[in-house]
Amino acid sequence: AVKHLGRELSYERLTAASDRVAGDLLSLHNKTGAIVGVYLEAGIEYVAAVLGILRAGGIFFPLNIKFPDHRLNEALRLTEPDLIITNEALEPNLRARFATNGDFIKTPLIYVIRDAVFSPAQNDVSAPPAGVRNVTPAAGTGLNDPDGDACYLIATSGSTGEPKVILGSHYGLCHFIQWEIKEFGLNEDTCGSFLSHPTFDVSLRDIFAPLCCGGTLAIPDETTKQDPVALYRWFEDGRISLTHIVPTLFRLLTQAIQSHKANAKALPALEWVLTAGEPLYGHDVFQWNQAVGEHAKLVNIYGPSETTLAKIFNRIQPSQLTAQQIVPLGKPIDGARVMVIDGNRLCHVGEEGQICIETKYRSKGYYRNPDLTRSVFVPNPADPESPEPVYLTGDIGKWLEDGTLQFLGRKDAQIK
């Protein structure tokens, strides 16, 4: 199921470990919907912790262990977690933060995930009762309807730099992961990379896509993530077949392959490269195909955290691109409707306007901030009778003649 730093864990062992974590959490705080901060680095412990929290019916909130005190405290103040989960190596650091910083919120319960959780001798543990009540709410339920249980919190900051916390649901996350598995034919032979930082919602794609199709989740060490040449070799040695990657790192990986590939066909196991988060250009695609070939298929995906991971995708066709062109965002995935709106008017092909997304698989909005939620999830300005709100992305785009969406920039000049 998971491999990291030479250590491997089977699905049986991972299930047993996450069940033990769930049982421990329920014994400490037996409350469905408990918010659990995760003070761990990416690794096998992190995966077991997240699965354990979900198994107990909790809501996981990734915390950045490298945040300075004031930023960590701001994240805790906004969410007020019931518990924080950490490991034996990080526990002293976490407790010292609370002990020495008077500005910190009241110390929550701290649960330490220990090596015994992964002991094969305890595989006979009884699974705790599932805490999730309902993953698939009825159509037309509201943003904060309890029928669609929440499962994660992700902190993000907008153009003002003020942190915002997005509340995601099982319903939305399940929809996207199952879409990705079906769309790209992922299966038990899939080996997916966990490159993104746990505090970014991209990590949810990294973790759940391979695990929900019976594949393998491979996690590089932090040093490898920072060294494109080492990362290329890690991809090669680990036979990575699926990766989600931002264009900046994609370019660095391409350069590393061009300079250090040992044979004519680099990364022969790699099948899918999904880029997101920044504009990708035609010349990036051309450079990649020269370095790797076209067996590793490129896909551009787009979608704000507020609408759950991604709602637009483009299977990139290099023959349709020019070098300086921004690769189009593509077309909506199943379960999403995308509009380009100027005021209250739908834009025609070629007209610039704000990109808006309508989907029942959206997030539940901003945690404890209904006013902000209502300001971006609004009645459809072009169809006031629609039962679903639309999300105002703040991104500017236009429809192309072939029905794909082109990204043009930000409405507020925020760096994207």
Structure notes:
By secondary structure, the chain is of the alpha/beta class. The protein has helices at residues 11-28, 44-55, 69-79, 91-100, 170-184, 202-211, 222-225, 228-238, 247-260, 282-292, 370-376; strands at residues 2-4, 7-9, 35-38, 59-62, 83-87, 109-113, 150-157, 163-169, 191-193, 216-219, 242-245, 272-275, 297-302, 312-315, 331-332, 337-342, 345-346, 353-358, 377-378, 390-399, 405-410. Helix 5 packs across helix 6, helix 8 crosses helix 9 and helix 9 (247-260) packs parallel to helix 10 (282-292). Strands 16, 17, 18, 19, 20 and 21 form a six-stranded antiparallel sheet that branches. Helix 2 links the parallel strand 3 (35-38) and strand 4. Mean pLDDT is 89; it is low at 134-144.
Structural class: alpha/beta
* Shape verdict: globular
* Helical run tally: 11
N-end to C-end Cα span: 33 Å
Our estimate of the beta-strand percent is 15-25%
- Summed over residues and divided by their number, the pLDDT gives a mean of 89
Largest beta-sheet details: 6 strands, antiparallel
- Count the strands? 21
Uncertain stretches of 5 or more adjacent residues: 134-144
Helix share, percent: 25-40%
Rg computed from alpha carbons, rounded to a whole number of angstroms: 22 Å
